[in-house]
Design goal:
The chain is mainly alpha-helical and 113 residues long. The chain has helices at 3-35, 38-58, 65-78, 85-102.
Length: 113
């Protein structure tokens, strides 16, 4: 792939991530807040965060996003987190988006949810 094409692709991905962060995540956050208590949300974020960090360490190869997500979903189910599949997917996507914006070396903030 030519360098110019690669730079264009990276720019498009950055714009998509920015749009997700600005428009989609706040609406998702509102939906989750309406349907859960603060304690449930914090528990969900904590368990999801742990599962995501473990998956990141376990699957270090590129293009393993699907395997990582499956690992986190199974981790949450084993931890007894009782929410539907769509909500689990949204939470995982929200946390991963937060890490992608803020850096994987940062500790997740309590404002995520």
């Amino acid at each position: 792939m030519k360098k110019e094409y690669f730079e264009i692709l990276i720019s498009i991905l950055k714009i998509a991530l920015m749009i997700t962060t600005i428009y989609i995540l706040p609406k998702l956050k509102q939906l989750i807040e309406e349907n859960t208590t603060a304690k449930q949300r914090q528990e969900l974020v904590n368990f999801s965060n742990i599962g995501i960090k473990i998956a990141e360490q376990y699957y270090k190869e590129k293009n393993k996003g699907k395997d990582k997500k499956e690992f986190v979903i199974n981790y949450l189910k084993k931890a007894g987190i009782k929410i539907n599949q769509e909500q689990i997917n949204q939470i995982i996507d929200m946390i991963v988006s937060w890490y992608n914006v803020n850096g994987w070396d940062k500790n997740i903030s309590k404002e995520v949810i």
